[in-house]
């Protein structure tokens, strides 16, 4: 089973001057899986990513990346992963195209891949612009393009669509799903719960250095759907929410028979609702 895992974390801990940021967490990420690592600011997400990418050394615990123990993090391993974080740097005196072309040469990627990615992330029209002149959203797209340039086996993404317009975010979602379907494992952090629900195969909810809940988005919604209800929009425009009981079933049947129902939805909690229920904190 280990050979099918891109990330294996067991009893990971990290302390800073007496303060424990990561407290005995364990999880795995399989090949071709998008794993959502969700939690509020200060929960330990960034610290974990820095350990997994060789930027920090753990206090204790065992971590394997693509089958290699990270205590021996090699240059070869860096060539097999992609990283997008808020401190990922660019060459500001180079243009958008030159930045990607430089890394393409470094990673022995054909320049045709550069042209393809510029289209996919919506930067083709700005390829001659200096990186220093890009807006925050454009910079974010360029860093993402650089991270996936070599079609890595494992991708670390920290808030990849934060601040992007819906059209560009949708194009990036399509790119990430394509990478996943081609076998790339993705560790994703996001505060966008709709994004996490749409993209993630599995998620872990992190709070105060602990993983407090995990599972697929659907599993968690079902598990925490303790008060089953139905939200109904009637043809008159009236909206009602009804509890799941025998009386409600009879009412809905009656409304269906008389053509009074426009839409009907079950009221599962969102991932945000679940996080607040589990931790008492908002996911911001």
TrEMBL record:
The keyword Membrane applies. GO terms for molecular function: ATP binding; ATP hydrolysis activity. The keyword Transcription does not apply. Coiled coil: none annotated. GO terms for cellular component: plasma membrane. It is found in: Cell membrane. Its main location: membrane. It holds the Pfam family ABC_tran. Keywords: ATP-binding, Cell membrane, Membrane, Nucleotide-binding, Translocase, Transport. InterPro entries: AAA+_ATPase, ABC_transporter-like_ATP-bd, ABC_transporter_ATP-binding, P-loop_NTPase. Residues 7-233 form the ABC transporter domain. PANTHER family: ABC TRANSPORTER ATP-BINDING PROTEIN, ABC TRANSPORTER, ATP-BINDING PROTEIN. This is ABC transporter ATP-binding protein. It comes from Vagococcus allomyrinae.
